[in-house]
Here is the input.
Amino acid sequence: MFNRSTWMILLVAALAAALGGWLQHRSRLAHVPAGVTVAAVGSLAPDVPLTGLDGRAHRLADYRGHRVLLNFWASWCGPCLDEMPALDRAARAHPDTTVLGIAMDEPARVQAFLAAHPVGYPVLLGRLGSPSTSLQLGDTAEILPYSALLDANGRLLATRRGPLDAATLDRWLSVGPAD
Here is the structure.
C-alpha cells in the first residue's frame, strides 16, 4: 500500500515528466526564427533557392511535375552517408521520382566527398544560415539526415528525421506517378 510520501513522490515525478516533455516541445519551436514559415505535411513546400555544385542557381519549383524526394545530408554525418547507397539504388529503380541530395555542408567538402563516393542523383547545396533550407522544409530540430517527399505539385507528403530505412524508402517511392 502506498503511503502519503510515496504518492507525493509519484505526483512530483509525473509533473516533472510532463514539464520536461512540454519544455522539449517548446525548445524545438524556439529554433524557428520569427517570421519564418516552416512547411508542414499537406502544405505546399516553399520555393527555396538551391545552388548546384557548379554554382548554378536552382529553385525547388524547377522540379514541379515530378514527385521529389529531398534528402538533407552532410559529409560529416555518419548516418547520412550510410543511407546514400540505398538512395542511389532507389533513384535508379524509381525513375518516376526525382531524388535530390541537399548537402547542408561547405561546397568544397561536398565536392571532395562526392569525388570519392559518387552518387547517380543530383546533389545541390542547401542554405546553412538561418533559416536553413531543411528548417524551411519541416526539420524544426535541424537534425540530419532529414528527408521530405513532395508530390508533383510541390505539396509536402511526408517527412522523416533520421535515416530512411529500406521499407520506408520503398513505400515512399512505389506510389504511381499520379499523386
The radius of gyration is 20 Å. Helices lie at 4-30, 78-93, 107-116, 133-136, 166-173. The CA atoms of residues 53 and 111 lie 7 Å apart.
